[in-house]
């Protein structure tokens, strides 16, 4: 399983040691594998282009969504535990340059007169090059949020925004859609493919443009319904079945090769 080749696409998103390691290891893994599983057609094209993988051996198997993410999740508990006051626009993402979290600062400033807060959930990781934040940030950062509170945090949000430069799949956007939250995503990476018509796509480099997309999402009475339908297509049961099928086919190929020898 290779989620993406982001470290080869733009090494500046990662620590130097991690980018070097990925550049050394991933092509060898992709070249030597009987089968490579990726979560999206976008990642498939990237793995073939950047890692030199055999196209016939690269298979798309999307990830799934935990069914705890739903409009019925415990909003009150999450809001109280995290000290939040509605309304708020939510982003769930690690603090890395690849996630383009700087775009949230401009959005937060534009939403402040409306009394809407921008809330970021997610911590950093040692292999990621974090996007710096000023001391006077307009975005409220929660850091890591406990898994028990996360479904309620989603469900209580007025909207969800994911302004990433690159995504191999876009799981958090699907979780927001499954929670019945109007969702805005960047027109980048696998996000359009994963979200389909269940989210509004936005240009993320311009905060007014991001606000325009958010307003469009909030004004669309059918967006939440489309998001729920789209998110319902992704389950871990489906993922497991499709992974099993790829593994069985790969084993059959390997067995035929062994018999031929």
Automatic annotation (TrEMBL):
Per the record, the GO terms for biological process are: lipopolysaccharide biosynthetic process
Alphabetized, the UniProt keywords read:
Transferase
User: InterPro entries per the record?
Assistant: Glyco_trans_4-like_N
* One Gene Ontology molecular-function label: glycosyltransferase activity
Ranges for the Glycosyltransferase subfamily 4-like N-terminal domain? 3-67
- One Pfam family from the record: Glyco_trans_1_4
CDD domains with a match to the protein in the record: GT4_MtfB-like
- Keyword Glycoprotein: yes or no? no
Q: What is this protein called?
A: Unannotated protein
Traced from the root, the source organism's taxonomic lineage reads:
unclassified sequences, metagenomes, ecological metagenomes
């Amino acid at each position: 399983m290779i989620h993406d080749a982001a470290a080869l696409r733009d090494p500046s998103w990662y620590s130097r040691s991690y980018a070097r390691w990925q550049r050394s290891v991933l092509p060898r893994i992709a070249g030597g594998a009987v089968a490579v599983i990726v979560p999206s057609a976008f990642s498939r094209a990237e793995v073939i282009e950047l890692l030199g993988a055999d196209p016939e051996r690269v298979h798309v198997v999307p990830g799934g969504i935990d069914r705890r993410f739903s409009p019925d999740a415990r909003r009150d508990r999450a809001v109280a535990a995290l000290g939040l006051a509605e309304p708020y626009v939510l982003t769930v993402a690690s603090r890395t340059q690849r996630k383009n979290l700087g775009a949230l600062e401009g959005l937060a400033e534009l939403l402040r007169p409306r009394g809407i807060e921008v809330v970021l959930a997610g911590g950093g990781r040692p292999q990621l090059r974090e996007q710096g934040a000023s001391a006077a940030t307009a975005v409220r950062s929660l850091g890591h949020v406990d898994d028990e509170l996360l479904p309620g945090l989603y469900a209580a949000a007025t909207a969800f925004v994911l302004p990433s430069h690159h995504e191999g799949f876009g799981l958090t956007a699907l979780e927001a859609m499954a929670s019945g939250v109007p969702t805005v995503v960047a027109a980048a990476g696998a996000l359009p493919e994963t979200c389909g018509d269940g989210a509004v796509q936005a240009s993320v480099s311009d905060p007014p443009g991001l606000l325009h997309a958010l307003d469009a999402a909030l004004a669309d009475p059918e967006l939440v319904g489309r998001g729920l339908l789209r998110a319902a297509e992704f389950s871990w049961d489906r993922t497991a079945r499709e992974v099993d099928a790829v593994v069985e086919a790969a084993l059959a190929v390997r067995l035929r090769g062994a018999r031929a020898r």
